[in-house]
Design goal:
The protein is an alpha/beta fold. It folds into 3 domains: 184 residues, Rossmann fold; 189 residues, Rossmann fold; 95 residues, 2-Layer Sandwich (GMP Synthetase, Chain A, domain 3), CATH 3.30.300.10. It has 15 helices and 18 strands. The longest helix is centred in the middle third of the chain and has 21 residues. Bound molecules: xanthosine-5'-monophosphate (XMP). The site of xanthosine-5'-monophosphate has 13 residues, from loops.
Length: 512
């Protein structure tokens, strides 16, 4: 089942999109860097290869290269944009630089409705983004599509299963682009739709059983989607030999620790230990105001507590983590752009190598939406699978300045009121995140006939696709009014509420 498609990463910003499109057909795929790709192809014998696009030019020094042997491995290849140009050069055709860069929509006329273009109309809109173009096709190839500016917008050598497209079928701007990918994957490569979450569960359970044998596994459960699904999956394989540790650092949203305990211990009967470490975290955070210092302290304290608790499990040999595929690709990509740096900055600590535990990462080939389908298949409740992201350092980075017990109380209560209105208004799943921030200023107010001098709560609610960019949510005045009056009337110590109307960039989602 694992054979599927290999996507070779030639630097395209759309790599993960290509993978998503392949997986939509219930076909497994992996993204690998060009270096060493021939060995991977030889050892895994995929059904097909997709060469991604990329910003480079094939004649540029240091541009991504491929071992030509790949084209002699008998495996069908689809080259997209730069991938098509690289294939052309490798097979003896000619690529030249265009005077004018073609970028955006173009009308594509199909000259052949076979192979990857099977069952397509003869004209579609496609998305172009290239500087170079194919001047002469390699031997054995035919032109299969053109646009007004690009004579060889697509090419094929059906006898060898080689296809090239100058445009991007993986982006939504290309009409029927998903059919093109589907045709390649299913018709040309003959992949079967065997990559389903049900089959994934069976395979993973078997693999985990084999790997762990009679051993013990420890896992840090955060209550987030990734660690939760990992826990339930491993529990299915080895039951009570999975030791879940939930560290209650006191920096969670109101009632969160209780919710996690109820779901996993009472409903799923996981072997879960809830460690109450609230006091220790607060003690370490005393007098600390800097955001990065807070993050470091929280990360280190978590590791300390986790390590101490793990040591109590006699003979534990494995550490399970909810690593997902995008994390893996970013950390191995030869072209890790700015997004790679942003991610590492957000990862809280890494567990120390000296623990000498063997890593088990059963979700490491899954995308987030697949993890959610997996959780659904494992009968996990909707509310546990569709949660807004919550930062590792928790409310500590939403209390600007020092974290104290009283300030935590104020933020937890205010945030709870806010969330209540958001959920009751049906907005929870429409927003990427919604939360309160406690500011380090006090303002004057009036309550009854007395003047007050109390705290300000800022409301942050954003829409976003991936957290990399975000827009402030256009919450209705009614919703804002209800949040504000609930907080001010019900939370002692708050006399003012403000709404954050900043986009990311240049602001960030969190305030610290
Ligand atoms: P920013 O504030 O950088 O946040 O726009 C982007 C996303 O990352 C989350 N975030 C964190 N997650 N540890 C985490 O695990 C952190 O230190 C951290 N800081 C920000 C934030 O909630 C948003 O979803």
């Amino acid at each position: 089942m694992k054979k599927g498609i290999i996507i070779i990463d030639l630097g395209s910003q759309y790599n993960q999109l290509i993978a998503r499109r392949v997986r939509e057909n219930n076909v497994f795929c992996r993204i690998i860097p060009p270096r060493g790709s021939l060995a991977v192809i030889r050892s895994t014998q995929p059904n097909g290869i997709i060469l991604s696009g990329g910003p480079a030019s094939v004649y540029q020094k240091n541009s991504p290269r491929l071992d030509k042997e790949i084209f002699s491995s008998g495996v069908p290849v689809l080259g997209i944009c730069y991938g098509m140009q690289l294939m052309t050069k490798a097979l003896g055709g000619k690529v030249t630089h265009s005077k004018k860069r073609e970028y955006g929509h173009a009308a594509l006329t199909l000259d052949s409705m076979a192979g990857i273009f099977k069952s397509l109309p003869d004209r579609i809109r496609c998305w172009m983004s290239h500087g170079d173009h194919i001047k002469r096709l390699p031997e054995g190839f035919k032109t299969t599509a053109h646009t007004a500016n690009t004579a060889n917008a697509a090419m094929a050598d059906a006898s060898r299963g080689f296809y090239g497209v100058q445009f991007h079928p993986e982006v939504v701007h290309t009409e029927r682009g998903n059919t093109i990918i589907k045709n390649f994957v299913k018709e040309v490569c003959g992949c079967r739709s065997s990559w389903t979450m049900r089959s994934f569960i069976n395979e993973s359970v078997k693999a985990i059983k084999e790997e762990v044998g009679g051993g013990k596994v420890v896992l840090g459960l955060s209550g987030g989607v990734d660690s939760s699904v990992t826990a339930v999956l491993i529990d299915k394989a080895i039951g009570k030999r999975l030791y879940c540790i939930f560290v209650d650092n006191g920096l969670l949203r109101k009632d969160e620790a209780g919710r996690v305990k109820k779901l996993f211990k009472d409903n799923f009967h996981l072997n879960l230990k809830v460690v109450d470490a609230k006091k220790a975290f607060l003690k370490r955070l005393k007098g600390v105001a800097g955001p990065e210092k807070k993050r470091k302290i929280i990360g280190n304290e978590f590791i300390k507590v986790f390590e101490r608790e793990s040591k109590r499990i006699r003979g534990v040999k494995f550490l399970a983590q909810g690593t997902l595929y995008p994390d893996l690709i970013e950390s191995q990509s030869a072209f890790g752009g700015p997004s790679a740096t942003i991610k590492t900055h957000h990862n809280v600590g890494g567990l120390p190598k000296k623990m000498r535990l063997k890593l088990i990462e059963p979700l490491k080939y899954l995308f987030k939406d697949e993890v959610r389908s997996l959780g659904k298949e494992l009968k996990m409740p909707y509310s546990a699978l569709w949660r807004q992201p919550f930062p590792g350092p928790g409310l500590a980075v939403r209390i600007i300045g020092e974290v104290t017990e009283e300030r935590l109380r104020i933020l937890k209560e205010a945030d709870f009121r806010l969330m209540d209105v958001i959920k009751m208004s049906g907005l929870y799943n429409k927003l990427w995140q919604s939360f309160g921030i406690l500011l380090p200023v006090k303002t004057v107010g009036v309550m009854g006939d007395k003047r007050t001098y109390e705290n300000v709560i800022a409301i942050r609610a954003v829409t976003s696709m991936d957290g990399m960019t975000a827009d402030w949510a256009r919450l209705s005045h009614e919703v804002l009014a209800e949040i504000s009056s609930n907080i001010i009337n019900e939370v002692k110590g708050v006399n003012r509420v403000v709404y954050d109307i900043s986009t990311k960039p240049p602001s960030t989602i969190e305030w610290e």
